[in-house]
Model the fold of this input.
Amino acid sequence: MHIPIKAISVFHMAAKLGSITRAAEELGVTPSAVSQQIQSLETRLGTSLTAKVGRNIVLTEAGTRYFSSITEEMERITEATQNVRGRHTATMLTVRATPTLSNSWILPRLGGFLAAYPDFDVRLDATTEPTDFTREAVDVEIRHGEGRWPGMFVEGLADERFIPVAAPSLVAPRSAEIAVLHDHRLIHSVKAQVRWSQWFARLGQEAPSKQRRLLFDRSHMAIDAAVRGLGIALESTLMMERELADGRLACPLVEVPEVRLTTQWIVCPSDHLRQRKVRVFIDWLRDERQRWLAAVAELGWA
Done:
């Protein structure tokens, strides 16, 4: 009996990633080619393996059983093939982080990592979707949240300080009392863990009752809007290090309330720590954290 190894491999990749499009990108083929291979396998097996949900796919009951049965062997074949070709997975590091953290904090520092470890290939996936480590080929994630993921290695990236910020042209730095916040449009990051309502509540104050607002679902957009003078944002010093350092943003308040929280966490399955590439990257993150803490201390935001 002929075993359709190509179709099986394509199905395995699509099932692991949960997406025809992402599987096509990984395999270097078109989405239609991926779909055709899966349909061919389904015809041969006489049952449906997948179903479409929006842009993604989900496995049927038969697909789930089949994926579970072939995964271990497919990964062995992949590893053996890469070793024979001289491409060792030990040198490919895949990191996932939110778009804002990827662009504002990791990317400006990544050159130092590459210089220290020139043999590594690095893939940085910028997304807010949490990793399913059982199905996705991600080595380590920096995840936004509260840090409660049982069964995983979890370490806080840094203790962040949340402060109101504005362009100096809108409100002069360290010149105003909290009442100034009632006079300007407030910029909101709707997915942030410290929002304006919470910030005012921690101070024992009421949020402005008739508030002019500008809302974003990404922190980097809220930061950019504040830089452009569109209002006053409430953001983490971790996310706007560059803007504070070069003076594009500053806190307008004479006295800045102390609101701290860790919102970014280094996350991976504990067994990933056995891999040198993961240990090296986490150690590098710890070193960069210390440098960042020293930098924000100089700015007065430690």
Q: What stands out?
A: The radius of gyration is 24 Å. The chain has a mean pLDDT of 89. The longest helix spans residues 61-85.
